[in-house]
Design a protein that fits this description.
Structural class of chain A: mainly alpha
Largest sheet of chain A: none
Oligomer: heterodimer
Distance between the termini of chain B: 71 Å
Low-confidence stretches of chain B: 1-22, 571-580
Shape of chain B: elongated
Distance between the termini of chain A: 102 Å
Strand content of chain B: 15-25%
Radius of gyration of chain B: 37 Å
CATH superfamily of one domain in chain B: DD-peptidase/beta-lactamase superfamily
Structural class of chain B: alpha+beta
Mean pLDDT of chain A: 86
Helix content of chain B: 25-40%
Largest sheet of chain B: 5 strands, mixed
Shape of chain A: rod-shaped
CATH architecture of one domain in chain B: 3-Layer(aba) Sandwich
Largest interface: A-B, 39 and 53 residues
Number of helices of chain B: 17
């Protein structure tokens, strides 16, 4: 009988300790989850801002003057061909016809 | 606890034999048992409580006090047909004051005025003097830098909330179409309103971004910019007061670009409310003039009253009520129906309409959805303005586009029906799913549509055609000019016109319709001193086609091999700019 009671006492103490430590772990994990959720939230916010900034920097209103300053222009119907081979043939013919003129 | 197990057994065995167990002997084991069970229950309760706490935690220990004060909405992004961003939510700081905690009211107001130069000091002082309030907005939607400046002032009683704020990275691009939101991030007009009403927004505290997938418009940012840039160029060239233009897919009804100059910034809602900045594509109606003859001729052909070769005597001016209908450049000979279209004869168009009769004209225009109010995702289109009494005189003037005022988008949808094979077209600003089939409701015969294609092409390809300045090498442009005098006080103003050009390409199998309008252009040197659409709107439409054709991936005729696909690349190739 005494052994049983001692064993029960030990069990109680051990389980109390296990419970306490797992409770402690849980809280730590909860804090980590909250931290990571905050980090995710922040990252999402940052992504939204970066996406908006990328779109803002890539807006045609800004790109067009820059491209024109580099000597580029809107694509013309002359620059479209049905296949790569045809485009090559056309370019060769053009450069043969007018060797001094740069393609544009 | 002091009795050994043996003793209990013995006591139990002895009880029967002796028959005289004392009160202490009988109670001892029972009391022990009760104590043991009690202790066990006690420990079990503690254990259960520990388990409960471990599993559930302590619960929420923070209470939100400002929940009812500041509510805002998380909105899905708006992207163009290729996934390029047009509108998104970003986090911003909003400054509020707690009057009960403000120590020196005047110091707060004066120091804040250093950061916000346009601060209304009197109003803020009044707000702060009411100590019973615990929450007063000072300024919302601050950038992080401004928020830091305010923070550095170190004033007690001020605090920030993180909120969502709508950002339009494209600036003014497609501003009219996008609409705008109010300070709580709720859609008020345009597509933003559609997002609230149909797609749905999430009511949030603080700055939680929306989880919904983006709203995908039919607009193509590249095409939209090209149209806006060419229109701005035309406004400069012809010294016009405004301009509008749209690109419409004649088969699916998708609008690829809708521009109205002067443009508005969706981030500044006040701009959109200015009457000078009204949307000219869907928000206003105009008497469009001769472009309307496209529909008159289509009606006459569809009713089989005439063929393009039928000759009509247009030499005499037509009396119509108080005035007479005459041609601008009369040719003084009978014209075929095709020539009426190409030379834009008012008399000819009026004769064709009279021949059909008023009920038939009304029926035809109703079938093309021109007489009823129409709506798109961006809200209702301005309702058509019809004559109050529609008699034969009105039928004659409507034949060449006067006496009826419609929104350009609604007209473009009707005109597209005349060339897309004759099926019904409903304009949309939302991209269609590639697999969704469009129910083809025939409104006109295919033969009518074929004839109209030929006529419109001739009007541009012909040396005498009014639209010859819209020609673009390889794209088989077809179209019709329109120069409409604008109504003024007590009649029409002769030199104030709306010149427009209705174009479509490629005419052998039309894919896109381009409609360009210039408001009150001047007879500049470039336009030969004239305000006619053939000198300003037609070349503008030509420049728009030349620029958007390659963007849309259309292969010009000279490059396409016979029988091969007319598409150079898939302009709608998915996920090119996809962010996710």
């Amino acid at each position: 009988m005494r052994i049983v009671i001692l064993a029960a006492l030990m069990m109680t103490l051990v389980s109390a300790f296990v419970l306490y430590s797992s409770n402690y772990d849980t809280r730590q994990l909860e804090e980590r989850v909250a931290d990571q959720e905050r980090a995710i939230e922040k990252a999402r916010g940052d992504i939204a801002v970066l996406k908006a900034e990328r779109a803002h920097l890539g807006r045609p209103e800004r790109i067009e003057p820059l491209a024109r300053a580099m000597g580029l222009g809107p694509a013309t119907e002359q620059q479209l061909a049905a296949s790569a081979a045809e485009a090559l043939a056309r370019a060769t013919a053009e450069s043969a016809a007018a060797p001094h003129k740069g393609g544009r | 606890m002091s009795i050994a197990p043996d003793d209990i057994d013995q006591a139990g065995a002895d009880a029967g034999d002796a028959g005289m167990a004392g009160p202490r002997g009988a109670n001892g084991p029972l009391r022990t048992l009760i104590a043991t069970v009690g202790m066990a229950l006690f420990f079990m309760a503690i254990g259960a409580q520990l388990v409960r706490l471990a599993l559930m935690g302590l619960g929420e220990d923070s209470i939100s006090l400002t929940s009812t004060v500041a509510q805002s909405f998380a909105r899905p992004d708006i992207v163009d047909r290729n996934g390029r961003l047009l509108a998104t939510d970003v986090e911003a700081y909003s400054l509020f004051a707690d009057p009960a905690r403000v120590i020196d009211r005047d110091e707060v107001v004066e120091k804040l005025a250093l950061v916000f130069s346009d601060l209304d000091r009197a109003a803020l002082r009044k707000d702060l003097s009411d100590r019973s309030r615990r929450f007063v907005w000072v300024r919302r939607g601050l950038s992080p830098r401004t928020a830091q400046e305010v923070h550095d002032l170190g004033l007690p009683g001020l605090d920030f909330r993180r909120e969502l704020r709508r950002a339009y990275p494209g600036g003014r691009l497609a501003g009219h179409l996008l609409g705008y939101v109010n300070i709580d991030n709720k859609g008020v007009a345009g597509i933003e309103r559609y997002v609230d009403d149909v797609v749905g927004v999430e009511s949030v505290q603080g700055a939680t971004l929306a989880e919904r997938p983006p709203v995908r418009l039919s607009i193509d940012i590249g095409v939209q910019h090209a149209v806006e840039a060419e229109l701005a160029d035309a406004v400069r060239r012809y010294e016009a007061k405004g301009a509008a233009g749209l690109v419409l897919d004649v088969n699916s009804g998708e609008v690829l670009a809708a521009a109205s100059l002067p443009t508005v910034d969706p981030a500044r809602p006040n701009m959109s409310l200015d009457t000078g900045n009204l949307d000219k594509i869907a928000g206003s109606t105009f008497e469009l003039g001769s472009v309307f003859k496209t529909l008159t001729v289509a009606m006459a052909l569809d009713a089989a009253l005439v063929t393009p070769e039928t000759v009509v005597d247009v030499r005499k001016e037509l009396p119509a009520g108080r005035f007479t209908i005459k041609d601008l450049h009369p040719l003084r000979r009978p014209l075929s129906v095709a020539e009426i279209f190409i030379h834009s004869s008012n008399v000819g168009a009026a004769i064709l309409a009279t021949q059909a009769g008023t009920p038939h004209v009304q029926d035809f225009l109703r079938r093309l959805q021109l007489l009823e109010p129409m709506r798109t995702e961006a809200g209702p289109i301005a309702a058509p303005q019809l004559p109050q009494r529609w008699g034969d005189v009105e039928t004659m003037t409507i034949a060449y586009g006067h006496g009826i005022a419609v929104a350009p988008l609604q007209f473009a949808a009707a005109a597209a029906t005349a060339i897309n094979g004759g099926h019904k077209l409903t304009p949309t600003f939302i991209k269609r799913q590639p697999d969704s089939s469009i129910a083809e409701i025939p409104l006109l015969s295919t033969a009518t549509s074929d004839s109209m294609r030929v006529l419109m092409r001739r009007n541009v390809a012909d040396r005498v055609g009014t639209g010859k300045r819209a020609e673009v090498n390889g794209y088989e442009v077809g179209g019709k000019t329109g120069t409409a005098e604008m109504p003024g006080v007590g009649g029409y103003r002769e030199k104030a016109v709306i010149s427009s050009f209705l174009a479509a390409f490629p005419m052998s199998n039309p894919r896109y319709l381009v409609f360009v309008l210039l408001f009150e252009p001047k007879g500049t040197q470039e336009a030969g001193g004239e305000v006619l659409a053939s000198r300003n709107a037609a070349p503008t439409a030509g420049r728009v086609v030349a620029r958007v054709g390659p963007l849309l991936g259309l292969l010009p005729a000279q490059a396409a091999a016979p029988g091969a696909s007319s598409v150079a690349f898939d302009g709608a190739s998915p996920a090119k700019y996809e962010a996710r």
